[in-house]
Amino acid sequence: MKVFLEWSGDRSKQTADALGNWLGQVIQAVEPWISSDILKGARWDEELSNKLEDAKIGIICLTKENLDENWILFEAGALSKIKDAHVCTFLLDLKPTDIKQPLALFQHTVFEKEDIRKLTNTINHAVEDAGENSLDVVRLDNIFNHFWAELEEKLKQIVAMRSEVSEPIRGNRELLEEILEIVRKPEKMLPESVTATRVPLSEHKKLKSLLNTVTSKLDDLDERGPLRKEDIEAAGIIRKSLIEIADEIDTQYKEHIPISKEEQVMYRRKIYQLYRETKQLRRPAEFAEELEDL
To answer: Using CA atoms in the order 203, 184, 84, 196, what is the torsion angle rounded to 10 degrees?
Structure first.
């Protein structure tokens, strides 16, 4: 099964090479393909077009240097249009909150062992769905653990390479304003080509459960003591965003309006983004301890 790895820039290319070679070792049915010989900015040739069409998995390798490059956005848009393909980003030295639209729409995989394990499980499921030789769960887990150190070392070496971008990717104000815009204007998050297939009303309860998880995390932080000064405003906006999402879901439930599959995905992404933000909130003492551990 073909896995297309998108890259732009030296560190992104090295990341794509390392990840592609490693995936081929872990899941032998995987055939990684990287557009190494195609000049950036040139018109797509027949080979690239065919590879994109055949790909069942697309991985966009992002680094601090290539977030705003047109080629990354161009190929990402093409990947997202492939029928039945799973597209995600791989964040080498970034956090999900660093990613702007439209790349923020994709599911992110960060450079963490368990997150990459989830990615391999997703790829293995895609192999199975394609009717090819997938691995059973236990065997995949054993192979993953056996080869993990090799990938971790290579990626650490790439991270250690000097980046041309040293300033923060996104400021708190920009991030918080985007969260509010996403919550207030959800219709802008949906691709124009999406059809409004509805899902059962029971999905309302699942989304409310996810909202309650994030809210409980915020409540737990409040009970443990005041946050850092710079995180207090962020916590307030996150809580406000959660309330607005809950109100939208409750309104649809009361009016017996089923949530579309597109809305379901959109809400889950927004809630997950808020959860990620909540996990980054710190009390002064906790932040001091983290600095001491560095």
So the answer is: 60
Strands ordered across the beta sheet of 86-91: 31-34, 2-6, 57-62, 86-91, 107-110
Give the count of domains, the chain. Answer: 2
Domain limits for position 90: 2-160
Whole-number Å distance between alpha carbons of 66 and 213? 33
- 74-100 per-residue burial string, b: 16 or more CB within 10 A, e: under 16: ebbebbbebeebbbbbbbbbbebbbbe
Global pTM reads 0.55
Whether 3 and 59 have beta carbons less than 8 Å apart is answered as yes
Instruction: Indicate whether 152 and 6 sit together in one domain.
Output: yes
Predicted confidence (pLDDT) per residue in 56-84, tens digit? 788 999 998 888 776 777 667 766 666 66
